[in-house]
Description:
Chain A is α+β, with helices and mostly antiparallel strands.
Amino acid sequence: MTTYKQVTAFAPATVANVSCGFDIMGFAITGTGDKVTVTLSDSPDPVVYLSGPYGHLIPSDRDKNTAGVAVNAYLKETGNNHLRVGLSLEKNMPLGSGMGSSAASSAAAVFALNYLLGSPLKTIDLIPFAMEGERVACGSAHADNVAPALLGGFVLIRSYSPLDIISIPCPDELYCAVVHPHIELKTNDARRVLKSDISMADVIKQSANAASFMVAIARADFDLLGRSMHDLLAEPRRTQLIPGFEIARQNALKAGAVGCGISGSGPSIFALCKGKTVAMAVAEGIQQGFSEAQLESDLFVSALNAPGTIIIQAN
Amino acid sequence: MTTYKQVTAFAPATVANVSCGFDIMGFAITGTGDKVTVTLSDSPDPVVYLSGPYGHLIPSDRDKNTAGVAVNAYLKETGNNHLRVGLSLEKNMPLGSGMGSSAASSAAAVFALNYLLGSPLKTIDLIPFAMEGERVACGSAHADNVAPALLGGFVLIRSYSPLDIISIPCPDELYCAVVHPHIELKTNDARRVLKSDISMADVIKQSANAASFMVAIARADFDLLGRSMHDLLAEPRRTQLIPGFEIARQNALKAGAVGCGISGSGPSIFALCKGKTVAMAVAEGIQQGFSEAQLESDLFVSALNAPGTIIIQAN
């Protein structure tokens, strides 16, 4: 029951954790992302065809490739194991960047496949398949990148079991600066530095900030938003893995950022800002911080209500 | 610089923790509370004059009485140590009820004193003094009862240091049923059963529910509110201290409660409900649960946007 023979989808980069929302918050940004083309085929194809600047760095074996694993999960769970599809991935996003690179590949893949099949599933129901892609990429089937990559905008994951995903509209003036330094930090390495148990005092602070962050977004209260952007779980241990982090953050705050932290598991740094002009200045401030640590970097500035995965070609 | 010679204030009962907001959320209810009268005096007075149904159960020594300690803290911190005031406490609320009994005494005391002095401090700035009353009452200077008792309504405590308190307006249809069984559970006993460290998985769930609870309140999304009302920190260990808890909760949910949990550190049980009629039925269901455990109980039904501490007499 297919509608098209070949579909190409684009999924955006994402910022996960958002300082006070470890594993439960994330949002899509504009400016970079991955493309996946799914093609109806007559024969099984164990290979993902790779292109783009970072295509040569990832496995082409479909069972080890994040897009391939996500597509396999979709086909298996929907009883479409008999379907033969070819996969091409244009890998535009660097690995281990903290900008949801693997999530973008997974999201684009399942979105394109679902569209090819006539969109039998709603976008939100594609998330579990894309999470399987995350599992193979980083050892943890977290949703805080794939959910915003698919749905767009800001997403809160209330529960993983059952999956309970809530889209959170953001104030229009809310922008994000993301700066990606040219070093790789593997998500499972970044996970390894985490503590397994957290003190009651820190749990109370973490949940208070997560709660007040949501209040701040709903009220467009940028001052409260900034006060809420603290992470007791991951940032205190991960910042040491990112050269220049402290200077970059100080620069961001000096340039007017509402708050600043690690994007996903790093090494990218994000900052929330009121307005695009401030976000540009903040991005440059962060870039300057990395520069002092002898790191080149790329910057991205995006509104927070950014689109999720889209179809860019179907025939 | 006093404006009055004698002031009496009434502070309401409160529900703290609210299932997903351990130590960070609380709200005021109508129907019961404590009264404190502060009288300008010529000589030092080391005694708190006690009345009301539970007055005989608490210390009259001003340095051990929660209202006395709160007043002492106020006088000391505001440089009014020279002032002599007499204190009378009408103790209407049972101790160890989980309904903010000690907080009501502290809140009424500092509110009355501040009014007596011509209201030099804003209500929100009285919270730290009332917290000192909590410290002597239960060994922990928590704010999730005293803040809503003073301010009224629903309160989120984003941070304890510095104190950062956010008032959260609730949907008008949101009501609370609170049922107090006739057993005493001391707050420091209830704190003793808590774990000191929490697993990362539970921290993630706790902060996700705290965040989505705030979203649900802002959207008047009662379904999400119910899904968010889970506590991983205290309830799993405290319910065993409350006979009849499980049946009472099941009854509450059957009667249409949005969600149900322990009020403060218990043994009272609270439930959030859509509308007053449902809340009445839910309260009776909880009462029935306690009754099956051979416990008599009192019930209270209140809107969530309830008043805080008020002056009932000044001359």
